[in-house]
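User: Need the bound-state model for zinc ion:
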Amino acid sequence: MDVKILNKLKFIRKKTFIWLCAVLGKMFYFFRLCEDKPGIIVLMYHRVNNNLPPGPMNIQVSRFYEQIVHLKKHCRVVPMAAFDSFLTFVKNESNFKPTVIITFDDGFRDNYLNAYPILKKLELPATICLTTGFIGTNKTIPLYKDMPLPDYLSWKEINEMAEDVMTYIPHSVSHPMLPELDYEGQKKEVAGSIQEMKLRLKQGSCERTFCYPFGGFKDPTTFDALDALGIKWALTTMPGSNKRLSRNLIIRRMTMNGYDSMETFKIKLKGIDPGDA
Ligand SMILES: [Zn+2]
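Assistant: Bound-state model below.
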């Protein structure tokens, strides 16, 4: 072979090698950067109500207020849509404040009566996971049979909250254990809640995110159903922080227990279950 061509080939090979090293180096640096970040902490509340005893699904209003004030001062509270721009904000993260998303499951009316005024006052975004078959009805569950009706939000209240701090994600129509249903049954529950939200909500809908009722899902049927409906993110009840950058159907959340002290709360903001601490 001609010496000139041989030298040219050598040159191209050398250039390609340098380019590859640079790309791999950048990728390695970026993934290390993301690994070192605490990730997103998603908090899971249900009720905020002084007429019920504190417990895993209910927190007193004064304790909730104390926690929200702490989040305002010490954390960066982001809306649910932040998952879509996760890549950007992890890269741009310039401080060590924990990044937090606030969620409420099911759509209880006390979210409007007690939690919303506090969130609105402190201008912090939050998301309610709607069991659409219960919204705007007098339905109740045995645990709350003595609560005044309606115990669930109305679409009017939901739309009012969407004007400032609140966004919404589907949480099924009837709150079943999804793994007990077949593929079609699961798809019907998810699609039904998305459809109802499309019909009723004027704004604030995050339809690419889903919240599993009881945190239950089955691989592969639930994931297949979510895929077919274009769901990109799905919230579980498994504790921990979230560092994955791509589509994630197993988003971890920290359960906010009504018995939590401020110390326990602060441990949870690190994505650690205090039972394991
Ligand atoms: Zn639920």
